[in-house]
What we know:
The chain has 18 helices and nine strands. The chain is an alpha+beta fold. Strand 2 and strand 3 (146-148) form a beta hairpin. The radius of gyration is 26 Å and the shape is elongated.
Amino acid sequence: xxxxxxxxxxxxxxxxxxxxxxxxxxxxxxxxxxxxxxxxxxxxxxxxxxxxxxxxxxxxxxxxxxxxxxxxxxxxxxxxxxxxxxxxxxxxxxxxxxxxxxxxxxxxxxxxxxxxxxxxxxxxxxxxxxxxxxxxxxxxxxxxxxxxxxxxxxxxxxxxxxxxxxxxxxxxxxxxxxxxxxxxxxxxxxxxxxxxxxxxxxxxxxxxxxxxxxxxxxxxxxxxxxxxxxxxxxxxxxxxxxxxxxxxxxxxxxxxxxxxxxxxxxxxxxxxxxxxxxxxxxxxxxxxxxxxxxxxxxxxxxxxxxxxxxxxxxxxxxxxxxxxxxxxxxxxxxxxxxxxxxxxxxxxxxxxxxxxxxxxxxxxxxxxxxxxxxxxxxxxxxxxxxxxxxxxxxxxxxxxxxxxxxxxxxxxxxxxxxxxxxxxxxxxxxxxxxxxxxxxxxxxxxxxxxxxxxxxxxxxxxxxxxxxxxxxxxxxxxxx
Length: 480
């Protein structure tokens, strides 16, 4: 997740400099991160969850590289598929030289108001110079609650008319300086403007408290000390006034705030990703080298089984604070209590699934349904069920719910239950089918301008490959 967050602004800048579509790169970036997560125990939290469940059931936890015989081939094959399939399945049908080859579906909606007594009052849209704006078009006009759309070149502008523009983020910002127009959020912008103000783009994640609320209901300005200038919603138009738009997962907000906005909110669930002019790439140097050495030490200590992974990671965190690379406050902020509580509660649900007999019932049904295919058929039923569940709920929740079912199903096969556990860990960590199954997919949803089913278009071949690899490798590696 942090790797994807760091690379999104860099990839976008690279694409803009070369006139390439960013949509060809951001989804593969997310998918590549998911593939890398299944190579070692610490690649993703799901692996640690499965390891903890194994320990809770009386078995040894997963070794640092125990998942590697499955994860490494999956990652290698998946990477090759990404390289070859992305241009075929995600390529925009426009020339790279054309404006917005990748920005066609990444337009923001912004509201401007005609200044009373200003130079645009009484002029037509054509006369006011709003007919042929670069990278921007006037989509609708709201006059005293009456919506006029489409707006014709001969439409006469009046005081207090609210104009709805659609365009790319840089043109939205240029629009703020046009004489005769003021931002509909002028009251908020005025309080935040000045030399210390910066523009940011912030993506709404699935766990954000803003989901389902309007900006007005959330009291956005006072709560975040930021003014929302525009909203981008992938593949859809935003027709309401910005303050009245119920926010959704994947929405990207273009906002104005002080330079400390990103530092205040980057480690919170309110925004999944924050980027923009307020973002500065950390300077690489001695501190980066020290962090690299500490990370390497954690990996070596855990893989050599000198310390359990939890102890090694905690020791590494203490070293980082001791070397003043992180302050105690930054270290404390990095602990995601919401995720810890969610996983802890899900352990209880998983235990209930096991103790109530539900796991046995579902496992028996899977065995009966796929028994004609032998041991691999039972494994296929578990893997497919995990993939479907991950696409609907989160990866950790899917792993927790499927673990007791997988262990119960393994009793009907000649495959070690640990193999089933590893299969569940991998299958629940690589959601390529939806933008909501894993948060890195949600992070690239808005910036990439994707639509919901774009993920399945590229992700379906990858998912089939992962399932096939699990059915081949797990029985071979964990046969009793």
